[in-house]
Amino acid sequence: MKKKDSNCSLPAIVLTLLLILLAPQTSVAERTKKSILYLNSYHHGYQWSDSIHDGIRETLDGSPYKIDLQVEYLDAKRYNTAPVIQYLLRVFLEKYAGEHFDAVIVSDDDAFNFALQARPQLFPGVPIVFCGINDLDEEELAEGNLTGVVESFDLLGTVDVAVKLHPEKQRMIVVGDDSTAGRAIKKQIEGLVPRYKGRLQVDYWVQIDLAEAQRRVENLPEDTFLFFIPYYQIIDNRTYTAEEVMSALSAHSNVPLYTSWEFLLGHGAVGGSMLSGFKHGQTAAEMALKILAGTPADSIPVIREPAGAYLFDFEAMRHLNISEKLLPEGSTLINAPKAFYELPKELFWTIIVSLLLLLVTLIFLVLTMLGRKRVERTIKDQLSFQETLMDTNPQLVSWKDLNFRYLGANRTFATFFGLNDPSELISKSTKDVIRDQDYVQWSQSADVAVVNNREAFRKVRKRLTDHKG
């Protein structure tokens, strides 16, 4: 009886131990939930905004937290008016009533300004991380609980490259708009222009209609190059993106066009020291993760230094006859013909394996052809030997197919019956070539007997008359 009780309790003990062992692992496996609001100044489909969003998303997805990322677009490139901003604030207040955010990420100036104004009502006391900000002053930082990365593009790096590649250029025209970001970027450029005093004349085209800008670039002198700031145009109720505007200008321009924003490369610009929206998003997300881990926002230094990489468009360079040798060391080219070893790994090995298979097949075919030629040569030699042997035989020798037509004969046979060559017999019957009717009749009956009986005549003695009688 005791033995039975012991057996029944064993599974329960094992189950209890498993639950004890697995319980800590389950709690460890569960990631802490966090909530972040991301305010984007512009709209989905704008490449700069999309690249920032991608950088934020990728970084947060790889974090130890389970993050609920709420994304809101202000669409300021198209609808940047006070009534729209007030309407968005009312919508967000209604939408996020009672919602608690652990951090707020904003990209570009319009979202940053909106966040600072709406903070007391929408997310009081929540730390803000910014990126893509062109115009940041100390008064804004003084509000506290704030950090981020300034959109400090490397204008010097881009202009220095342009001057090196085009030493004859003496004038730079900055093309942009009068948007919040456009004004802030123009302000940054104006702060750097004195460095080129005496070397470059700098002019500005601000908020010029696209058609007018195209007309102007067609008539620019050869001592000029363009620097493009991303901006939108609305023509006949249709919105033209920054990429479309740049492409339209490039198509009408005979002078080089430069920029400092990576997402614009490939639309007519030669290149420059490029600012990456993706890296901006990554950096902002990394700062937000530090805040989630307990680091106060104010203790995380604001990043102000320019961070760019030299990127150039091979097609634009080829159009302007610019040599790759003049580019800064470590530059990256887009649209360049790929060397064989630069192909994608899967494609590279597919080509290699295909070439090896073709080589093996070729070798097999060559060996087969050589073998066939050897066999044909051997057969030819054997046939030649047999033909010689037949022709030197003093006996009459011939052979036929099952239709009783000659396939061949030796020369003795042909000579005996008055033929010039044994080939005259081929495909003919006995009566077609031999005049001796006795032989013809005997030959035909003998042929039938051999075919029907499937046996050869072992020995036959027959008197024949040759062609001379």
Account of the 3D structure:
- This protein has 3 domains: 28-151 and 277-306, 3-Layer(aba) Sandwich (Rossmann fold), CATH 3.40.50; 155-274 and 309-337, Response regulator (Rossmann fold, 3-Layer(aba) Sandwich); 393-453.
- Helices cover 46% and strands 16% of the residues.
- It is built from 15 helices and 16 strands.
- The protein has helices at residues 2-29, 47-61, 82-95, 109-122, 138-141, 155-165, 180-192, 210-218, 242-252, 277-292, 314-319, 345-391, 411-416, 430-433, 437-453; strands at 33-40, 66-73, 103-107, 128-133, 146-150, 171-176, 201-206, 224-228, 233-235, 238-240, 257-258, 271-274, 309-313, 332-334, 398-400, 406-409.
- The strands form 5 sheets. The protein has a 5-stranded parallel β-sheet, sandwiched between helices. It has a 4-stranded parallel β-sheet with strand order 7-6-8-11, covered by helices on one side.
- Helix 4 links the parallel strand 3 (103-107) and strand 4 (128-133).
- The model is unreliable at 1-8 and 24-28 (pLDDT under 50).
